[in-house]
Amino acid sequence: MDSLESLTRQITGAKELNSIVRTMKAMAAANIGQYERAMESLDDYWTNVSLGLVAYLKAIGLDKQDPRQNENTIKREKSICAIVFGSDQGFVGQFNDSLSQYVQESLSTHGGKLEIWTVGVRVPLLLADMGMNVTKQFNLPNSINAITALIGSILVQVEENQENGNVDEYYLFHNHLVNEGSYEQEKLRLLPLDAEWRQQKAQLKWPTAKTPEVIGDSSKLIRRLIREYLFVTLYKTCTESLASENLSRLNAMQRAEKNIEELLDDIGNTYHRLRQSSIDEELFDVVSGFTALKKD
Question: Is the pTM of this model over 0.85?
Fold first, then answer.
């Protein structure tokens, strides 16, 4: 049986741990707020860039091109690069495990060349345990201000691969928020910007009844629009992943806080029972001694 001293140490340790958990919960909640605000602004910017692409496609007459026209060129097995956004830190529940399982299931039927790039140190370990080879790893940004540097590094590697013709398609895998208090895995096609991509973008509706026009050098315009489109898509993906990570950590800390409070209740009840038993024994000894002295 635990002694009063042992129970006191357990209570002190549990209270200190609970204080740490509450701090982590507050930090996760604050991070979710800033990432959600960034996501809202990114949505507006992404819409503007996409509308610019719609205007360009309409101007050059490619908005109605049928992707089936390229069937003869896509019969071979394509080389794919999967960019997976995970986490660096723990205490995130099934955040990385669910994502790794989703990546494995999504790529299990691919028979061609496969590259896997990861963001964060925990996902590559899980993917390696599943028998998947991670070819490149990037450091996860620890703040919203560091995301730009990460996206720049990824785009540099993408451009090198594009110049060498090593990869045909790029896909993004990440967790994203779906509603209050939950997230799910998502697969997003980043490249190439082919007929299928053009047809998808052509589904976006121009906000006014007027026909958009392209003014100036159209070749420079499309390069800038595509550069911004790739940048904001990767930035948005990373921000959604970080928001989901902090949501998962917040949920984990809430469960931990509940467990600690229940543990404190159990230890506290045991402490009070043992303390009361000790007091009763001391009183019994005093009464017994007094009775013996009275008889003498």
Answer: no
